[in-house]
Amino acid sequence: MAVTDFFAGELATELIKELIAVCKKSSHCKASAEQLIDTINELLPTIEEIKYSGVELPQRRQSQLDRLSETLRGGLELARKVLASGRWNVYKNLMYARKMEKLEKNVSRFLQGPMQAHVLADVHHSRVEAAERFDRLEGSARRIEQRLGSMKIGVSDGWLEEAVKRVEEEERDEGNLVNLGVGMVLGKKKVKEMLIGRYDLGVVGICGIGGSGKTTLAREICRDAQVRSYFNNRIVFLTVSQSPNVEQLKIKLWEHITGNNISGSNDLNLQWKLQFDLRIGVRTLVVLDDVWSLSVLEQLIFRIPGCKTLVVSRFMFPTVLNNTYEHELLREDEAMTLFCCSAFREKSIPIAANDKLVKQVVNECKGLPLAIKVIGASLRDQPQMFWTSAKNRLSRGEPICDSHENNLLSRMAISINYLPLKVRECFLDLGAFPEDKKIPLDVLINMWVEMHDLDKEEAFAIVIELSNKNLLTLVKDARAGDVYSSYYEISVSQHDVLRDLALYLSKRGNLNGQRRLLMPRREAGLPKEWERNMDQPFNAQIVSIHTGEMKKEDWFHMDFPKAEVLILNFASNDYFLPPFIASMPKLRALIIINYSTSNTVLHNLSVFHHLGNLRSLWFEKITVPQLPKTTVPLRNLRKISLVLCKVNNILHGSAVDLPMIFPRLSELMMDHCVDLIELPSSICQVHSLEILSITNCHGLLELPAYLGSLNSLQILRLYACPAIKKLPPGICELEWLKYLDISQCVNLSSLPEEIGRLISLEKIDMRECSQIRNLPGSIASLRSLHRVICDEEAALLWKEVEMVIPDLRVQVAEECFNLDWLSD
């Protein structure tokens, strides 16, 4: 349980008591206080629910609830000031009344913003996973050709925001099951009958083939008002997947059901054995989505009075499930409606379309919602000859086995074959990432830039095209929005059937000759098939490995003369880097992601001596090792990304010589590196650095004094670094700086006096910088400045500056409380 949650709940309770007293004393504040009491009473249950849920908030977004606690604490202090004020002090009471109204407004914004209070409760019981996009029912956004023709990619503001805004618009229609027909509505009715009032059915299921809408139905069940009322909003939604971490899932379930924190696996095993003796009696619904294994399912089933489990799977588990609803495919009329929504953005066949041809294509989709939407999106706005060719190829599709699910891969491959070559290759690359995991867009973009000779804007355009064709889902971060936004703030997800399709198409041909050498799911070690073929070189350009802990003896020799991208996915506290990295002379991108709950320690660092061509490095949840004095310079390394890493060993003090080790580094990104206190002074000598992004590093106290020596720096991002109190004067020497982000640097007291020397500065983001109460006089010299994003109070400071700088646009940022991260 997060400490912040406890204090937020306690502050809300104390604030209500003080406000009641205020209502009795001050007539000026009475109306605002009464309204605020109602607001806090509405907010308090959700805070209490988090407080007693037993779930520890992820480190990644703890700061959002910190700000809520600060708001409540400020309200408490204000209420006490009102109590201390004399009744006849009219001026002071009026001032307090206005402050009370502002406080009420701030708290109300939290509740009334997008998916606020009910999401705060919901998101602790449900997890929005990779199937999300393909379970939505309305069509996609405009075709990519129209988008690219109407805007200059990478130049105009808003192009990224529009790309992801389409996802939000579709989500508003997600819950409308009527669009999928009476079959889905009937399925919802039958599943509800199994869940509500049937005490004899402790474990029930929804089964059906991949892409048939099982997860859509399950999530709609979780959103249903009657179901939520019956289970008192105690609903937890977990995605299990093909290669689950069972211990982590058991911990999540146990903490949610009991409200008790688990200190370790032994503690968990002891408590799990005691479950039959518990008499909790509180109704709780547990939804286990994407279950593949009976042995895994048996470990996640518990028999506690009042608790019911809904299992969503492609398979039936008759030995475990008391009852199962078999999800049916769409009827002919339902399939036609869904196809028309995807292909024409209408609910019926348009007059101008070839009625017979449309019906033939829909018939080939065999009533499967996912196939209907993907094929429909691929045919959107295409000429009739294209449709005819697609129909003919669908009708000739050869089944690879007798099951309809495998037939689906053959049919859906038609849509992939019609993609442009580079787009098709990028789609197949998605199979390199683990199932049911969000893929950081930054990782994807970097990989495509290195492999397919694309620039960043073209790579992102491919993301948009795949999204428009329902082949992946863009997952929007609240702050992403324009050309200066970092791609790591956005992620993508993919339906498991589409991932299966990418794997299926990538595995064609001889193993050693395949362009992508991928592990479909996590295994204890490397596949036996790889070991049998180790005597011959592997020609793969992408190598993706997904294991647990790997030691030196777990690896065997493999030769990769053409490998350009290596992705290491694992979950362990120690990891021995593969020795065969030394046989990857063309390696350009190395991605190391640890999915464990704690940071991992890497071993065998000597392999970095062989990475002379490495251009991009991504570390996630890694304890970054201290660089030895004999470190060979990585002369071609352009970009380093450190996410949730421990970095103090490498960056503390001035001992590390960054320009010597990374002589051509152009971008350094550090996010949620909690032990980062200071940057080494040698970073000021990395003259090739163009982008420096330090975000959510709450321990960072100050920037190096000579930061102005970075004469190539164009983007400086210091988002959510609350310990920074001032910027060094040297920052004003960055004559090429175009973007400065100091948003949520809540203790930053001022801008540098000579900031007007930043002659290239185009944009400043200073939202939630409440301590900045004055602007330096030199600010009027920022002739290139055309956009400032700030809060309402700060916008008043910029009024006079707007008169001096004609092209300046001051944008008041909306307060956003996006809590999707709680489901990670």
TrEMBL record:
InterPro entries: Adaptor_Cbl_N_dom_sf, Apaf_helical, LRR_dom_sf, NB-ARC, P-loop_NTPase, Powdery_mildew-R_dom, WH-like_DNA-bd_sf. Keywords: ATP-binding, Leucine-rich repeat, Nucleotide-binding, Plant defense, Repeat. It comes from the Eukaryota. GO terms for biological process: cell surface receptor signaling pathway; defense response. Pfam families: NB-ARC, RPW8. Residues 1-149 form the RPW8 domain. The keyword Ion transport does not apply. One of its GO terms (molecular function) is ADP binding. Belongs to the disease resistance NB-LRR family. PANTHER family: PLANT BROAD-SPECTRUM MILDEW RESISTANCE PROTEIN RPW8, TIR-NBS TYPE DISEASE RESISTANCE PROTEIN-RELATED. This is RPW8 domain-containing protein. It comes from Tetracentron sinense (Spur-leaf). The lineage of its organism: Eukaryota, Viridiplantae, Streptophyta, Embryophyta, Tracheophyta.
